[in-house]
Design brief:
- Two copies of one chain form a homodimer.
- The first copy, chain A, has one domain: Arc Repressor Mutant, subunit A (Orthogonal Bundle), CATH 1.10.10.10.
- Helix content of chain A is 64%, strand content 14%.
- In chain A, helix 3 crosses helix 4.
- At the A-B interface, helix 1, helix 2, helix 5 and helix 6 of A face helix 1, helix 2, helix 5 and helix 6 of B.
- Chain A binds a DNA duplex through helix 4.
Chain lengths: 103, 103
DNA sequence: TTAAAATATGCAGATGCCCTAATATATGAG
DNA sequence: CTCATATATTAGGGCATCTGCATATTTTAA
């Protein structure tokens, strides 16, 4: 069964979203943002990551529509913008489910 | 908040699983295997992929414990071996949910 | 044991991602 | 305007992944 162009495009999009999430630092950021929007400083401080590196990851995720942002004065708040990303994180980061299935 | 070693290991494992799934051809294979175990030939025939390439992807997924296999005579049947992988596929490949959120 | 079918492996060029360091830009206070 | 804080961008070396191609291995039948 050869996939149609639309199906291929859809697969590539799904894979692209998963590639964004498939990264330890980005997973940590996403987990943190489950608690609500946060500024860049709050994020890299909480996770003990370099500022520039954190900003890169945030912008990457935003460019892939996984995050959205909102400026308030000198600060920028990031938040999760994709409902499916939340579901994926729950599949992978739920304590009970993961310890048995993934670990 | 610096993560503990155990937390880091867990994140890396979750990310590793996601990396395996984050690939168009592997997603197609996994979707196909949702319908039950299949032989290599059934898979590469159904998906119109090169045999060697398909075998590589299958072995990769098996090495990461995403798939399991069972030999029956000259044929090898592959099946999904990780419940969370199924959940992830559903997050990403469910028709209605995806068109609106990921596409 | 020879042949055919089914599956697996090795290799290699190309591409892309990871992460660090340095630097640039934007915003608001004074 | 100048400074300090907050955020973003650029550059680059190193490493892993992608994927086509050739070939090897395994299994069964004859």
């Amino acid at each position: 069964m050869t996939p149609t162009d639309a199906q291929l495009a859809h697969l590539e999009k799904a894979a692209a979203i998963l590639r964004v999430v498939a990264h330890p630092a980005r997973l940590r950021i996403l987990q943190l943002l489950e608690g609500g929007e946060k500024t860049v400083t709050e994020i890299y401080t909480a996770l003990d990551l370099p500022q520039a590196y954190t900003s890169q990851q945030l912008n990457l995720m935003k460019s892939k529509d996984v995050l959205a942002s909102r400026r308030e004065g000198p600060q920028v708040f990031y938040r999760i913008a994709n409902r499916n990303v939340l579901k994926i994180i729950h599949c992978v980061c739920a304590e009970s489910a993961v310890e048995t299935d993934l670990a």
